[in-house]
Amino acid sequence: MTTHVTLEDALSNVDLLEELPLPDQQPCIEPPPSSIMYQANFDTNFEDRNAFVTGIARYIEQATVHSSMVKCNEQPNRVEIYEKTVEVLEPEVTKLMKFMYFQRKAIERFCGEVKRLCHAERRKDFVSEAYLLTLGKFINMFAVLDELKNMKCSVKNDHSAYKRAAQFLRKMADPQSIQESQNLSMFLANHNRITQCLQQQLEVIPGYEELLADIVNISVDYYENKMYLTPSEKHMLLKVMGFGLYLMDGNVSNIYKLDAKKRINLGKIDKFFKLQVVPLFGDMQIELSRYIETSAHYEENKSKWTCTQSSISPQYNLCEQMVQIRDDHIRFISELARYSNSEVVTGSGLDSHKSDEEYRELFDLALRGLQLLSKWSTHVMEVYSWKLVHPTDKFCNKDCPGTAEEYERATRYNYTSEEKFALVEVIAMIKGLQVLMGRMESVFNQAIRNTIYAALQDFAQMTLREPLRQAVRKKKNVLISVLQAIRKTICDWEGAREPPNDPCLRGEKDPKGGFDIKVPRRAVGPSSTQLYMVRTMLESLIADKSGSKKTLRSSLDGPIVLAIEDFHKHSFFFTHLLNFSEALQHCCDLSQLWFREFFLELTMGRRIQFPIEMSMPWILTDHILETKEPSMMEYVLYPLDLYNDSGYYALTKFKKQFLYDEIEAEVNLCFDQFVYKLADQIFAYYKAMSGSVLLDKRFRAECKNYGVIIPYPPSNRYETLLKQRHVQLLGRSIDLNRLVTQRISAAMYKSLDQAISRFESEDLTSIVELEWLMDINRLTHRLLSKHMTLDSFDAMFREANHNVSAPYGRITLHVFWELNFDFLPNYCYNGSTNRFVRTAIPFTQEPQRDKPANVQPYYLYGSKPLNIAYSHIYSSYRNFVGPPHFKTICRLLGYQGIAVVMEELLKIVKSLLQGTILQYVKTLIEVMPKICRLPRHEYGSPGILEFFHHQLKDIIEYAELKTDVFQSLREVGNAILFCLLIEQALVSHSSTPYSPLSLPLLCSVLPFPFPILFCFTCIPSFLLLLSSSPLSPLPHPTLITSPLSLLSPYPTLITSLLSPLSPLPLSYSHHLSPLSPLALSYSHHLSPLPSLSSPPILLSSPLPSLSSRPILLSIISLLSLLSPLPSFSSPPILLSSPLSSPLSLLSPYPTLITSPLSLLSPYPTLITSLLSPSLSSPPYPTLITSPLISPLVALCLLIHQLSPSSPLSLLCPILLSITSLLSPYPTLITSLLSSPPILLSSPLSSHLPLFYSPSPLSSPLPLLAPYPSSS
Q1: pTM of the model
Q2: CA 1024 to chain CA centroid, nearest Å
Q3: What does the DSSP assignment read for 22-51?
């Protein structure tokens, strides 16, 4: 049965898809983003105070006083900059005036509260801890404001300038304005004016020191019992202690007398003040001992204090605390992971209902996590503050220059490497744990609200029943009213009302079966007013002070007092935990590590901002990059999050856009530097790894035997960084992998370019080094491609070689340049070693080469040790040119490059033979003796030698014989030997397509008999001449090219397939189809080596009879499978029907087309057409270069077939020559259109020579080189 879904339900289901998380596999090595987020504020600021019943009315009064604290309003928007000074400074001076009135009003309000609480009638009254802490916050505010006013010297200067301009413009004509301006001047000019005014007004209040003592004592108690959560709360308690002692120690009161009366405990405070420096505001710090040293009675009691002595507290040595911090981190992370796996990963956190014990465990875990984060953040801030107060100098740090600025001495040169690593590690722990706890925020919030609700309801409905029963029985009306007020304030009764039959309300005992009270369970927390009222009323029950002679504490039993004290202590953190997200943000806030306004003020206008080298976030980030410490590399993104903290603080706390703009500008600069350095390091690391892998192991072992260690690059953790696809920084999501890939691609291009440039700056012997550099770059590219998307190495190499659109690249050009200007004239061949060596006496000038650019070691082999090692290896290749060099040339230049070099060499040889050598030969022939008879044998050897010496004296004494004639002959000989050795290198290099080159190229410049003689005497491996034999009864010899040996070790088998007398039965030969499995199997047998990389075999001998034509078709089809041409990518098709091919019109015989798409393909097409039905006319394979040219070729062949003796038939070679020029591909036509063979040698030559030769061997020779013979 199908269910019907409404449109609304379907749309709601679609909307739910947006809530599905789609996380990627990116490792989390960065803190949570400081995004724009909504934080619910449940603080009612006591607006709902009238809704709750209180036992004592003045608690509401104190809450009202607490809520109406004066708050400094934010300054108005700054007006535009006007030309006149008054118009510019007037808004700022107005704010200064408001600030003066604010501090005056705040002092009056504070003194009024102190005076009210110190009244003789109320001195013994109970004052809540919350109210005392509020007064302590007042004191902390006065200390901070006074220090800020003292620090800002520019404020006084600006006000003086404004005052002078206003008086000149008569802006302050009335006496009131003049008096206000004078008061402001005095307020700004006097240091510690706020403190002095506060102390003067307090001293006139009798008993003020008692209240201040209570404030100091409550701060000591909270600090000692760690009743604080955020770092700012901890430091506020310390500042309240110090400033409170300073205010008490004056002309009226003496803190040392109070200590003697046990009113305060100076010894305990002295112990707390071992923490010497605490943050004051921003980058301002204060030494706590300064409050003691500036007090009135310090000198005569100096010996009682140890905190004022100059000693370094171990609390500022972060390295010593790292052991405990790591241990705490591991323990808590392990416990958190256990809950995270079950709550977040499995998704059972919010859906499943838990017991009170499970909620309590999560509650305790959240509280402990916040306390750990606060503790670690406090460590970082205290170390940073101590360093700012104690900058280094050139005596303490040798790296610190004497001209360094104070902020530079406090940050850049004030930390050792171990301290920087410790700071980075702690910051990483803080931010990493913040990520994990942030993921569990919803689970924690659920547990926190359940736990707080259960604790309050159990305490109010269950624990308070017994004291309420005793109070009713003993008729303690005040106690009854307080207890009833607590229950009515906080209790959430089942059924929405208190059970009226509760025996405790009548002072009676519970029945024997017990009185059942069901306490509900909800995930609802109390409001801030409820929590404040409950805690305050509970505190009044156990306080030592009370308005009456007898305290309420004496009316309670001991266990009840302990229960109330325990609940009161644990409920202190309820307020923080109810605002878990905000508390987590405050505990991890390290924004003050960037702010530096105080030190900018100290520069007196010389600096408007410090460079990034003095900025703590970049100092820590750069230290990781510079040291390349593998264990710290994954932490490199955490210091950058300090910018997120600073930007968030600038916008939400300071509310200053210009501060955020400065942070953003520094982030842009730092992140560019970060990506630049990181990309260089990653490239250098993988380059060094490639160089180390390819370095000869035997060479490394020999170096080790001699005590030289060539180290492998230490393993590093760059893979994690390369997986970062969305780094969050100042609200931007950055693809770090893409940025690094861009720079590494540029570095790879530069590395290839430097390798080629290095080759261009040296002679031909350095080509071996170039190949190894290319191999190292290729391996580097392969390793990097596993982690990033790079262009293919071949594309990069072509771009660096300038070979993208050009027919030849920089390497080819430099090889020819070196051959022409250095190798041919300056090298001599040694036949015994088969090497070329440089002559002792050069006959030409040294060619000018560009010097190589100085680059970093990682652009060559990877590192300095590797560069030295490879230089030693390649020094053995520097003094000769031999087989290693020729093999390298073949691999690097390829066929196209070698063809270009050969062509240019032939031009050089031709110019030498037809030019310089020919002229000198003519000259020498003229001076040869006309008659030179054979001397008589009686002369003896010395006489005969002298006879010929005398006859040839003129030639021997010819001045230019050795310098010019022999030098030219050397260049010709070196060119021929170079072609020979290149040919040998090509033959030995079986994995690269090749074809014989030198012989046909020499044919174009030498007489015909020479190549035959050269073929069979000098280069016997080039050709194999098979005469007629029983296995090959052919009327003409068969010419097979030298690549046959690479295609098959069975040359006789191929020969036998051409003959009816083959060992293969004739019946099989006649019926052998090109597509048959037997033919394919023979192709595998004929080509055991890689066959697709070899050129096709051209069989140019005519076949004697028609009976062998099917075999010929089979053989050609087999050869087509062995061809590397692109068009031979599919099996050949035998078209036997005259209607199946356009070319079948030329012949009634079958036509073989090697590719079904050959007529539609822009690639060369091999077509074997049987042009004549007569038995005397042999078939010839024809290579048609383009489907667009094939009709013209067909027309030429048709004309020749129909009328061989007509004048049009004589134009066929001309038409075919024109055809070859129209094609973008090499044209090879082997059809014999006349009795003498007609061969088209080159499609790209400027002229198309037609060679006619009666010899059956001469005509096929140029067919062996299907490459361009001219540029």
Answers
A1: 0.71
A2: 59
A3: ---S----SPPP-----------TTTTGGG
